[in-house]
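Researcher: Going back to the complex we discussed earlier. I've cleaned up the inputs and rechecked each line, so this should be the final set. Can you rerun the prediction on the complete assembly and write out the structure?
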Amino acid sequence: MQPLAAQPAINQNLASVSDGLIIAMIVCYAVALFLFAIEAAYGRRERLQAERSAVPTGGATAGAGEGDIATLGRDSGAVKVKVRGERGDAKAPRHVLGAVALVVTVVAFVLNAAQVVTRGLAADRWPWGNMFEFVVAICLCAVGAFLFAALRYKARYLGTFVLVPVLLLLGIAARWLYSEAGPLIPALHSYWIAIHVSAAIIATGAFLVAGSAAITYLLSSRTEAKRARGEQVTGIAARLPSPELLDRLSHRFILFAFPLWTFAIIAGAVWADEAWGRFWGWDPKEVWSFITWVVYAAYLHARATAGWRGSKATWIGLVGFACLLFNFFAVNYIFSGLHSYA
Amino acid sequence: MTPIKQSQSTPSTEPASTETATAAGSPPALSPLGWLRWAWRTLTSMRTALILLFLLAVGAIPGSILPQNSVSSGQVSDYIAEHPELGPWLDRLYLFDVYSSPWYAAIYLLLFVSLTGCVLPRAKAHYRAMRARPPKTPRHLSRLPYSATFTTAAAPETVLQRARAHLKGYRADTSPAEPGGQTAAGGSVAAEKGYLRETGNVLFHLALLALLIALGAGSFLGYRGNMLVVEGDGFANTVPSYDAFYPGSSVDAADLQPFSFTVDDFQATFIEEGRLTGQAQSYSADLTYRASPESPERSHHLQVNHPLPVNGAQVYLLGHGYAPNFRVTDAEGQVVFDQAVPFLNRGESNFTSDGVIKVPDIGPEQLGFRAVFLPSAATADNGDLVSDFPGPRNPTVTLEAYQGDLGLDSGQPQSVYQLYTQQMEQIDSSESLQPGDTWELPDGSSITFTGVSDYISMQVTSNPARLPALLSAAVAVLGLLCTLFVQPRRVWVRARAGGDGTTTVEVGGLAKTDTPATNADFHEFTLRLSDDLRERAAPEQGSEKE
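Model: Rerun complete. Updated structure for the full complex:
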């Protein structure tokens, strides 16, 4: 026995800084959500030049509709361009406060990252070793994915829909899952924790954004259907972002997350081979991550199949997201398995 | 335990055809061959594949809810005992062996037949497409999702040559004349890129097939065994050395790798104080081993997460426990028993452990003890003796002695962790004993608690398919990345000489996937081409404005 090695190296100062940051980031996210909600409810629905999708046609009318012909004048020589099948109607609500909300979200994101880093430093290990830390890290990744989408694809309109689940998760984490910074059990002493768990966390964050976009898509396409029937749509429903935008964004994040999830499962299998003596043993966590994988694979196939695109495929994606959440929460608390670190 | 066994009956399309025929509505009136072809098409359709994917996911659920034989057969028998009505039915439906059940095998084998039937023709078509020329330039480029027109002073040949130069990464093909028999001089370039998408797709699905085959091979050729080894003891890799042995269907006792090892030392460290007192920090064991009887002796520091690879097998440290040492002397003072007895942890973090000591060779009346071991005995508030730390701070044993027939000769298999007291009677129970303490029994015999050893629970696995499985998985990820992120696209450029010395250039672009960025890329290409041509034509530059 080696009593000396048994002193856990917890830096209490850093640990309390880390705990203070939890409150700060929750407050910041809440403020950002409030501002995003104002944008969603009172913003003017404007046509977005989403991403670099549309051909630059000289004028301000981006996203030329089918059959539009635009002439692009250059110093000498002229190019006549014709673009078909561009999505013409990519609209989302915009409001000045939305930009403020984005800035507040960036601040909250930095606080969130600082919380994760200080916790890791306080415990002198990778900052994902228990449910509380997983949730905080997943929120960090989800918000990171959202910020990326907001900057790269001008998808600021997703703010409300991403921050609601993020705040819910953080609330659950702070209220019920909280555990103080501490050392890991021997089974987690492996560099695979950095590989396997990080991949799973990043993938989960991206799936979360995809799931929020998918739910918004379903709401928005109902609005669209009502409009198509000639009904009057009022209120927030009328201001939802265009379904095409949401569907594409959701698909894009699943495209990103799916290979990462596959990699997380494989890395987990390699780790399981080292730690438990088999690479696949149908542990409940393994079963449910496999189910999640299969359902998202079905989503990708469905989206590539005529007749399944649109809300059918979106529902499959949401089933996948439900499996993911079930895997994350229920499997740890309901079933007894090797992943019972809760 | 061998899911592949079922594969011998299912891969033929007959069982598949009957199943899909009922699933897909009324079949057309066809000859048997036509029927078979129709069934094959249905099976290999995307819809069937999607349904099978869902069944694969849904079918996996009961395995996570109900106890599984592959994980713990003890839990299964407990469950059946608790649910006498339901249990046998669940068992009949293989719900305690979901992942090796015929119905689950049917799902994944159908899926993989469907997948093969879908992927192989695609692979063939893709191979042809990769060797074929890019598709001919369509007559009406303006009908494509992206099209652009401009005029230039450059000659048609220059236009086509420059276009090819700008289409980097494309497979391009120049055709000199128009198929429609154009009168004016000119030609066109057809270009395509992004073949890797389909290559990745085929590769991904083939890798999944390879993974399934590797898993099947593993369950044939691999084995797994569990055992407890007391510190200081040795182990030789033979079937009788294991406490539990799970061989693959074609594993023979003679196939076991002839390695052996000794556990020289074991250390466990726990957090000694503070809020997390008692949480384990590390386990490790020092082994000396030989890969085979002829090999030199080597040493290895065995830890959780760091198995010992030896001779194609892996030796794992899974957990640990305590093996108190006892010495029993009979009424004459003869030592009749002197060894370490592994005790099983009750599952508590502080290692309160139960064990049984069987002393058969002590005379007409055999002796048996039920014992409780506390590594750090302390008195709880209610006066009970409990263990308050997992390390051996205050090792203590309490014993209950039984006398009679242990039943070892009855022919019934016995667990070493259980005392069968049907033919025994309890004679006494002891005070708590510390190492060195001796307890005198009424008949003059005595038992001494001489000390505590550690034991480690270990596992040996041998699975020749591990690396093939890992390789398949890696290839699958690679293929997946290609198929998700490579964007195939086609570009056509047509140059037609006008009467006035200028050339009309038409550009057409087609993306096979819906990525909005592609039109912008096509446009960028058009601009680059027109700028390039203008610079080249600059010396004889006139007014080209329309």
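Model: Worth noting: Chain A touches chain B through 75 residues (CB under 8 Å).
Researcher: Good, that matches what I expected from the previous run.
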